[in-house]
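Incident log entry.

Two folding requests arrived from the same account within the same minute. Monitoring flagged them as a possible duplicate submission, but the sequences differ. Recording both here for audit purposes.

Request one:
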Amino acid sequence: MTEMVGVVGLGVMGSAMAANLVAAGHTVVGFDVDPRRRSFATEAGVRIEDTAGAVGATSEIVIFSLPTQSALADVASQVAAQGRERLLCLETGTFPLAAKTAARDVLAASGIELMDAPLSGTGLQATDGTLVVFASGSREGFDRARAVFRAIGRSSHYLGEFGNGSRMKYIANLLVVVHSLVAAEAHVLGMAAGMDPATVQRLAEDSTGSSRMFEIRGPMMVIDDYPVAGRLDVLLKDAEIIKDFASNAGSPTPLLDTALELYRRTSAAGLGGFDAAVLCRYLETEAGIER
């Protein structure tokens, strides 16, 4: 078992992964710029360091769970300056490949490996330890990280060369973006038709039209409660990245294009801080439906 695992970025995803690593018996060190997140992580058994670089200096494997490309660049520079050789870093976010490649090169100059290992799942799956890992980079790095992947997820997949993890995440999240919207559309149609939302959810889940997103986000739509598990603004950010990637690849995305417009409008309506299931509430308003 890895004796020391670091987590840089202790938001919804990072704090859940850190807690599951502690529960699995790892010694976990962490850092976040937000003092409240540092405090919560301490309560979960995480030892807090003063900087991201200090996490790299004391860990064997470090998970990056960061919100922006600029945060990734900053953390990579800090860890490169203070981290030790043969440190393995796991970049778990959804960013353009150019941003991940730049971070990889900065770390490699200091003898540190970065794996591209984005995660499939929301904060709920992170809490439950049922994330899916799309890992790419060296096979040796993947093998070294197996115990970490087991602690944070239900499965991990090795996809070969660096960048393939992100490519797979773009494909998977295209489905998430579209399926989340169509789940909301189906529920609003049910309401407009006078159907009971709980009945619609139960029977649709049992039908051939169901999807994992319908099963995850549909129950939130039934009760009109949208906890911060997979924020709409984060999924919108991912969708914009996917759109750029698909355009550069010459791949048409007619459903993603339509979904993007609805996500943008929902965010502009002030709902971006809720789980993406809040698309249902936005469409209800569009339809003039009051519960």
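Request two (distinct sequence, not a duplicate):
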Amino acid sequence: MVEIETHGCKLNTADSQQMAAEFLRAGFEVRSRENSNPPDVFILNSCTVTHIADKKARQAISAAKRRYPNALTVMTGCYPERAADETASLHSVDMVLGNRGKPQLVEAVTDRLKIDLTPCADGRDIIPNAALLGRTRASVKIQEGCDQVCAYCIVPKVRGRERSVPVDEIVSRVLQLEGTGCREVVFTGTQLGHYGFDLDSGVALPFMLTEVLKRTDIPRIRVSSLQPPEIDNRLLGVWSNEGEGRLCPHFHMPLQSGSEAILRKMRRTYSSEEFLRKVDLVRSRLPECGVTTDVIAGFPGETDEDHEASASVMRAADFSDAHIFPYSARPGTSAHHFDDQIDPATKSERARELRAIGRTSSESFKASMLGQVRSVLWEGQRGKLGLTDNYIKVRMDDGNIKRDGDGLIEDVVLRSVQEDGVVVVGVD
């Protein structure tokens, strides 16, 4: 039996789903949440985007070894891709494979355990519920790698150059998920807006989305992240036309900084003015959409004025949600060598201030949605936890929970915001 724990981004989630399917095809059992038996193999698919991610990976693999002392513990993902020797030296790690080793993971584990399993007779591509984002949502990798090489980012080193998954493979993957009862796919990658540049002429993100919409019946499709320069009227037209009712009106647009000087130093490819123009464009085409973002606080050389510029852009953009990260120096990036690092206390304080702005705008967005009818996908028991099409976490008034709703999509009325930020909904 194999247990897979996933840290980090949805790209890692997609990789873990693929790993789970490959282990099942090879004859292994993949441990579900309901299974109380200890696994024979524990795999941590790790993240390394910050030093905190590294710390969480070390803690997780150590806890797994204590919990399952007889299991083979495997560290894979971005952390060992960046620091293979460091991860291999951990006493709780029995085997290390970076991202490039993931395709050989099943074979490596089988060889290490010296076992001979019987593969699935028909070789079908199994997608276990235990490996989905929830029970009814799944990540589908459409692209991987990045050629941009931002000053702070380790992704190009651990994910390599940009490469796109062919359209037919994406359609096939969505059809497989659809056949298992999956109700929402999240298209993920590192630079989704660059999709198709390495494929046939005319193949780009709008074309791929249109093909999936035409050739599958999956009820909901979500695009995980887009850079401001990648958003234009042609792309948004897919949401307004072919994708209406199926393409989720949610756009994650990483800001990173509102300061022109810091954006240039980060090697980002847009200005704060262009960023705000694209937010306005999205909302002009899809007025009730959710717009979420990432912001880095305390990048090297960031002055008080630069910090205030980020705060100003956040207020102007009025995001529906914002993820704020204090800058974390990553070995292997150019920003790691900058000599104007910001002290930890200042980074923490600036992050706190930006999070407060993000909370205010998130609360405002949710309040503006109250009284509206939105589509929600329930995960597990109906009403316990779900996600609207425009990315609002909701739960239902207990009086309306009458049946199991795993995979149920229904229209609900948004009624009130609870203290934890979750919106209470009902069905009229």
